[in-house]
Amino acid sequence: QVQLQESGGGLVQPGGSLRVSCAVSGGTLNGAAMGWFRQAPGKEREFVAAVSRTSDATYYGDSVKGRFTCTRDKGKNTLYLQMNSLKPEDTAVYYCTFGRRVITSQLENHRSYDFWGKGTQVTVSS
Questions:
Q1: Is residue 91 within 8 Å of 125, Cβ to Cβ?
Q2: φ, ψ for residue 35, nearest 5 deg
Q3: Are 62 and 77 in contact (CB under 8 A)?
Q4: What whole-number distance in Å separates Cα of residue 98 and Cα of residue 74?
Q5: Residue 83 in 3-state DSSP?
Q6: Contact, 37 vs 95, CB < 8 A?
Q7: CA distance 57 to 117
Q8: CA 52, chain centre distance (Å)
Q9: How far apart are the C-alpha atoms of 88 and 2, rounded to whole Å?
Q10: Quick one: pLDDT at residue 62?
Q11: Longest CA span, the chain
Q12: Regarding beta strands 68-73 and 10-12, do their DSSP bridges make them parallel or antiparallel, or are they unpaired?
């Protein structure tokens, strides 16, 4: 059973940076798609970023392109999300997700993934 543990969330001022991490246990990143979604109160879960299971290609949601960078360290079995130029609208719970059968065209669909972390809160406020 794959388990995902997010860490690194917190409070940051607008314009600041934060890096969240997702440690994977019980499974390997090889051959798996991994991604980040977020959910703010009263809103639907939103796609943030994902890494393809078949290559190192990374995809981003329109609202974070150019500001967020998603990377994975296969040696450490960890996924990262570097968030720069943060805005108040980035405030949400950020979830890490893992899937062994996700095709590229479905990376943005949260229903494509098999396992989820419990999430980490990111709050952008002055």
A1: yes
A2: -155, 175
A3: no
A4: 13
A5: strand
A6: yes
A7: 22
A8: 13
A9: 32
A10: 97
A11: 41
A12: unpaired
Task: Please state, as a whole number, how many other Cβ atoms lie within 10 Å of the Cβ of residue 118.
Answer: 11
Provide the 3-class DSSP secondary structure of residue 11: strand
Place of tokens 């999300």: 81
Summarised one tens digit per residue, pLDDT across range 47-91 is 999 999 988 899 999 999 999 999 999 899 999 999 999 999 999
Both tokens of residue 111?
């229903």
Q: How confident is the model at residue 46 (pLDDT cuts 50, 70, 90)?
A: very high
Q: Which amino acid is at 61?
A: G
Residue 114, exposed/middle/buried by CB under 10 A (0-12, 13-18, 19+)?
A: middle
Q: How far apart are CA 71 and CA 34, in angstroms?
A: 10
